[in-house]
Amino acid sequence: MDIIVEHLSKSYNNLQVLRDFSFRFPEKKTTCILGESGCGKTTLLHIILGIEKADAGKVSGVPYGRLSAVFQEDRLCENLSAEANIRLVGKGRIGEAQIRDTMEAVRLSEAFHKPVRELSGGMRRRVAVVRALLADAECIVMDEPLKGLDEETKAAVLRVIKEYTEGKTLIVVTHDKEEPRLFGAAALLEMP
Ligand SMILES: Nc1ncnc2c1ncn2[C@@H]1O[C@H](COP(=O)(O)OP(=O)(O)OP(=O)(O)O)[C@@H](O)[C@H]1O
Questions:
Q1: Centroid of ligand 1 to alpha carbon of 102 (angstroms)
Q2: What pTM, to 2 d.p., does this model score?
Q3: What region holds the ABC transporter domain (predicted)?
């Protein structure tokens, strides 16, 4: 099912962030949400995820039981290892070999046993990405997943994201104009 948002409005105090906003995110395809800082990209994702409530409008088609996310801030369990953070979402189904292989593919092998609080910003980002990818979701929502990564690591993470999200609904927020092409996005939402 496509994810459809219709006539959304959202204000914070006197600031109107979304006004009568509508869009359709195609099922099993990648959509990039592109826009300047502060235009409301994260707010829209939060409404789709059910973290924020819109003042008006409607969201439909979100598979809430099969949804995973990379949040703007990593939202990891600081005292657990990278591996344990990833395992948390798997309901016991993710094998150690799969976690090891995926972590290696995003150049994160050295973080396997380390508590997340000891990891760099870019490493934490990759733990959050791997966690979302291994969660066996139908729909994955990512808020700037490549933030803070050097070019080579970015290319590696991009490859892994594309491999795992093939045939799934992927929604990616970015303010990098190159990323819709890099992700091979089928749809582009440019926010004003
Ligand atoms: N909980 C909140 N309370 C008050 N204002 C908020 C809140 N969340 C967001 N805003 C404001 O709403 C506007 C849109 O924020 P949002 O985080 O959705 O933008 P964004 O496009 O994701 O920005 P960025 O690219 O910098 O992450 C900003 O002006 C922000 O300050």
A1: 32
A2: 0.95
A3: 3-191
